[in-house]
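Hey, quick one: can you model this chain's 3D structure?
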Amino acid sequence: AWGTGKIGNRRTSAIGSLLLAAQAGVLAAANNSGLYFTAVVIGGVSSGLIASAQYNYHLDALPDSERSSWLSWNLLLGNVAVLAGALAGPAIAGVIETPTALVLFGLLRLAVGLLIWIKG
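Sure thing. Here's the predicted structure for all 120 residues.
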């Protein structure tokens, strides 16, 4: 992929996370179909970047003997995270309203993207 070849898996993962933060911000501000579709495009690009780089970023740092167990745990915990987010997100949005929840989640994604970029 373009990103991984030019700047590496870590920074491509960070950019994907930062774009996910931007997507949440655009979605929070969306008051028309143009902004909504912009958020969808940003989300698609960011998901593509993360999907192409995240696993390789993690696997590069693991010894060969631990890769299969790491992948198993990663897939299991990733599914748990998706389920928890699908349950907690709407509940949080119900308490603090959807735009505020999207801004909060965007800020959390921004923090994760910056941590990946700076700390690795």
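One thing worth noting: The helical segments are 2-29, 33-60, 67-96, 98-119.
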